[in-house]
């Protein structure tokens, strides 16, 4: 089998933010994304996970140049978009789209739903006015809304419906890569399942590459082909979703998995839970950035920075990954949280319905 080719690649990607100058002392620098090397294959669902503040949104925005990097490269096919000016980037935006976490604040309340979905088509000069209207109607249907919803305004819709509008808008220009920054986190669990199903279906139908940002590992358990785990601006582990959930190789991944509540009881696993808060990103710990919270830390961890090593199939940045026997989700069926289970059941039913529709005359 040939390796799928990367559609997005980053090399040494960095983004720093200078904090507002305090009353006393100097402004400080947050290294939100600090030397990230990633390869995202065409057609895969790639998830980026980690605690709040670890740099996921900054990385997501860098991947589609919604913000400019302070260093490093972002290759989309053969183009380093880190170097492109706004004009050149505008043409590429048609292919690189973003779904925001909060569908309410990302949709202009004064524009009708039809105008919102049509806007990217107009911006890229796609189709005649009539063709664009037809495309809006088609997209609304594809995300489970009705063509006549085009005349309504965002406030007339529920959170889940608004996120469907956000998805339709992101898909309007026929993108190749869609990045969803916590696309379902703001929604009720039952609605999350529907939106996840829609994203999965559309991904297949339009042959998209999907990058999903999540702090909730349960959400991406059954969506992602591969997962990257982020800690304080760095990638600490990557792997296929199956391998990473069953056999984590980085203590931070183990701790994130341990924080997923156990199905039925909702209890948290006693072992391997994560201690303390995320350290201040302005002054990250020396050596391995996770050492202040790692139950396996030794002296070398406090002084030497571990590099991310391995192949595309699985990488880890830990001095002791070869000798540690870490705990994953032992039995996905019994340990999977109820919410994720419900989501998966809905997804499976939808797939079964689809398969039936395509086999029946
Ligand atoms: N515009 C900004 N100015 C200053 N600091 C910023 C800015 N944007 C992000 N940061 C800082 O960069 C770090 C990473 O932030 P980011 O929003 O990327 O994290 P995140 O993983 O997406 O968190 P969350 O899960 O809460 O969304 C944080 O310390 C944050 O405070
Ligand atoms: S390098 Fe050391 S501190 Fe860092 S994750 Fe591995 S064992 Fe823990
Ligand atoms: Mg974020």
What does this structure look like?
It comes from Roseovarius lutimaris. It is a peripheral membrane protein. The protein folds into 2 domains: 6-224 and 339-357, 3-Layer(aba) Sandwich (Rossmann fold), CATH 3.40.50.300; 231-274 and 285-330, no CATH class. The protein has 12 helices and 12 strands. The chain has helices at 56-63, 86-93, 113-123, 129-142, 159-171, 189-206, 217-221, 241-246, 251-258, 299-303, 332-335, 338-359, and strands spanning 6-18, 29-41, 45-49, 71-76, 79-80, 96-99, 177-181, 209-214, 226-231, 234-240, 309-311, 314-316. It has an 8-stranded mixed sheet, sandwiched between helices. Strand 4 and strand 5 form a beta hairpin. Helix 3 packs across helix 4, helix 4 (129-142) crosses helix 5 and helix 6 crosses helix 12. The protein is globular, with a radius of gyration of 21 Å. The relative contact order is 0.13. Mean pLDDT is 86; it is low at 332-339. The chain binds adenosine-5'-triphosphate (ATP), iron/sulfur cluster (SF4) and magnesium ion (MG).
């Amino acid at each position: 089998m040939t390796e799928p080719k990367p559609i997005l690649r980053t090399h040494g990607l960095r983004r720093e933010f200078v904090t507002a100058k305090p009353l006393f002392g100097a402004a400080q620098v947050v290294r939100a994304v600090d030397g990230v090397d990633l390869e995202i294959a065409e057609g895969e669902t790639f998830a980026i996970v980690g605690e709040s503040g670890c740099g996921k949104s900054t990385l997501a925005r860098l991947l589609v140049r919604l913000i400019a990097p302070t260093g490093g490269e972002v290759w989309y096919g053969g183009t380093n978009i880190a170097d492109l000016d706004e004009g050149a980037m505008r043409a590429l935006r048609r292919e690189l789209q973003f779904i925001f976490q909060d569908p309410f604040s990302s949709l202009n309340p004064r524009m009708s739903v039809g105008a919102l979905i049509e806007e990217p088509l107009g911006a890229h000069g796609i189709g005649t006015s009539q063709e664009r209207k037809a495309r809006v109607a088609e997209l609304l249907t594809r995300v489970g809304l009705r063509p006549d919803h085009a005349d309504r305004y965002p406030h007339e819709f529920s959170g889940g419906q608004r996120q469907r509008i956000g998805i339709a808008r992101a898909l309007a220009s026929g993108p190749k890569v869609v990045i969803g920054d916590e696309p379902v986190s703001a929604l009720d669990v039952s609605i999350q399942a529907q939106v996840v199903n829609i994203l999965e279906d559309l991904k297949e139908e339009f042959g998209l590459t999907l990058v999903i940002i999540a702090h909730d590992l349960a959400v991406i358990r059954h969506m992602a082909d591969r997962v990257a785990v982020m800690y304080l601006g760095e990638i600490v582990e990557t792997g296929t979703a199956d391998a990473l959930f069953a056999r984590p190789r980085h203590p931070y991944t183990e701790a994130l998995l341990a924080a997923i509540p156990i199905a039925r009881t909702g209890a948290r696993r006693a072992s391997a839970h994560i201690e303390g808060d995320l350290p201040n990103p302005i002054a990250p710990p020396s050596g391995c950035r996770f050492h202040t919270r790692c139950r396996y830390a030794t002296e070398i961890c406090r002084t030497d920075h571990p590099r991310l090593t391995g192949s595309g199939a699985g990488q880890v940045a830990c001095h002791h990954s070869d000798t540690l026997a870490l705990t994953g989700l032992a039995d996905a069926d019994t340990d999977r949280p109820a919410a994720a289970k419900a989501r998966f059941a809905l997804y499976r039913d939808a797939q079964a319905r689809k398969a039936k529709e395509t086999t029946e005359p």
